[in-house]
Recover the amino acids of this structure.
């Protein structure tokens, strides 16, 4: 971002976030902003610093350090004393961050794909990013880093837009009603993807229908020329199609014959070969506009669907088939999401380890179990608590235990509080643990060089500790924690 403080004040006003200068003085017209940050430790000379507040922090307490690092202007809720740089005072710095990011985003007319959905958002975003990198080069596109998909991460992503970018893909996350509409209004997408609607954030969302409505807000946010992308075979497809009725068009994806972008596929070990058929705006009723082959190095049918979503989104912005093929071929699974690893532990070196520890909800766990079930026996599932499940916790965990047994999983080891229900539903020989060291000791007893082990759990359970032991041989004594963490600490995903 490179702009002026006058532009910043104008953007705030257009967002109904009027900003006043300290003492009511005029803003110097020649103050240039060469970047934006909310991290007092990352301020560079010329940056605009926005002082955010949270339950555990208040950046207003660090304004002296921010100024010492060379910040050229501040956006705050309360004025500091004796500052020589422009200070804009607003009622809410979080809203101001969104307003400024929106103002900057509107300086660019490039296509922007917004990715929402219960599961697979980050994977689809990275698939799209791989395609954009192939089409435009490493510096020719913008994408969300990691999963910075909330009211802070999305604006910080958008402020990285510059004239070299020819397209962008931005991930939008939520765990409460109203968040997708807010984030989409900031990002101004030209293509809006709803990847799916499943059982996520049930502690805060009343139902899966509420999740579908919330994620569908990205379609409502599109302009009259925007393109909506959503699955053709979801329970809420009709609703999303209704949201898209007054937009520029829609592309559906899926495995059924009535999807605009569909495929047949052949699963292989941690990958799939797709034969894609696409009916786009140039297709006739009987003749597809495109037919092509794609290889993805990602396990499971759900990743076939993720690839179709990425294909539909990039076709919607005019990406050529060759770039789609090469981009998806270069895609590698995201960290902690069905990553294929090999055990290095002396007792079972070479065993296949499936790292799916990033997060968990009932539907993502079922998809991961499907992948494990396709692997060679013996098959071991190590499962931590699923968070944000509200009153559904016992039912959801029992469902997963029964499903693992039904799918032929050899054994189940669970960890946490609620996951005990999964081990009980699985039956003998499943075991439950409330201590990480005891869990890992039990894993060691189960493992052989021919075992396939899947490790999964919600983010707050930190199940990657099991992965570190399996893959790097980290000692049990370095992994012990005093107690099981609370689900309330789970991050938005």
């Amino acid at each position: 971002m490179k702009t002026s403080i006058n532009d910043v004040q104008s953007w705030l006003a257009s967002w109904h976030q009027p900003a006043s200068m300290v003492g009511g003085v005029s803003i110097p017209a020649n103050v240039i902003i060469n970047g934006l940050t909310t991290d007092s430790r990352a301020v560079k000379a010329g940056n605009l610093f926005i002082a955010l507040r949270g339950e555990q922090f208040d950046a207003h307490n660090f304004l002296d350090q921010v100024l010492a690092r060379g910040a050229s202007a501040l956006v705050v809720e309360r004025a500091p004393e004796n500052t020589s740089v422009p200070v804009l005072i607003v009622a809410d710095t979080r809203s101001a961050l969104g307003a400024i990011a929106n103002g900057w985003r509107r300086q660019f007319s490039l296509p922007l794909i917004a990715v929402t959905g219960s599961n697979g958002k980050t994977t689809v975003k990275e698939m799209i990013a791989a395609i954009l990198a192939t089409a435009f080069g490493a510096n020719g596109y913008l994408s969300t880093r990691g999963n910075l998909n909330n009211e802070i991460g999305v604006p910080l992503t958008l402020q990285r837009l510059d004239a070299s970018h020819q397209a962008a893909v931005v991930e939008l996350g939520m765990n409460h009603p109203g968040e997708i509409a807010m984030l989409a209004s900031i990002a101004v997408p030209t293509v809006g993807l709803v990847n799916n609607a499943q059982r996520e954030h049930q502690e805060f969302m009343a139902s899966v229908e509420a999740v579908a409505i919330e994620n569908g807000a990205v379609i409502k946010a599109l302009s009259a020329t925007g393109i909506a992308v959503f699955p053709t075979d979801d329970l809420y497809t009709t609703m999303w199609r209704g949201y898209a009725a007054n937009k520029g068009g829609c592309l559906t994806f899926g495995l059924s014959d009535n999807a605009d972008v569909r495929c047949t596929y052949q699963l292989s070990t941690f990958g799939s070969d797709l034969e894609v058929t696409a009916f786009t705006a140039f297709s006739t009723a009987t003749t597809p506009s495109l037919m092509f082959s794609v290889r993805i190095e990602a396990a499971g049918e759900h990743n076939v669907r993720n690839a179709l979503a990425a294909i539909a989104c990039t076709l919607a912005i005019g990406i050529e088939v060759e770039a789609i093929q090469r981009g998806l071929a270069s895609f590698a699974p995201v960290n902690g999401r069905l990553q294929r690893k090999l055990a290095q532990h002396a007792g079972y070196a070479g065993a296949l380890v499936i790292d799916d520890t990033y997060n968990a909800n009932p539907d993502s766990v079922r998809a991961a179990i499907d992948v494990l079930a396709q692997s060679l026996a013996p098959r071991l599932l190590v499962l931590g608590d699923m968070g944000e499940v509200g009153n559904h916790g016992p039912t959801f965990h029992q469902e997963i235990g029964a499903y693992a047994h039904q799918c032929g999983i050899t054994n189940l080891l669970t960890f946490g509080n609620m996951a005990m229900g999964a081990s009980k539903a699985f039956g003998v020989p499943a075991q439950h643990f409330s201590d990480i060291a005891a869990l890992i000791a039990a894993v060691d007893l189960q493992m052989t060089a021919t075992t396939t082990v899947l490790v999964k759990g919600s983010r707050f359970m930190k199940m990657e500790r099991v992965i570190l032991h399996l893959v790097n041989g980290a000692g049990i004594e370095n992994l012990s924690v005093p107690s099981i963490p609370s689900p309330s600490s789970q991050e938005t995903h």
About this structure: Residues 339-489 form a domain with the Protein-Tyrosine Phosphatase; Chain A fold (CATH 3.90.190.20). Residues 121-136 form the longest helix (16 residues). Confidence is low (pLDDT under 50) at residues 480-493. The chain has 15 helices and 22 strands.
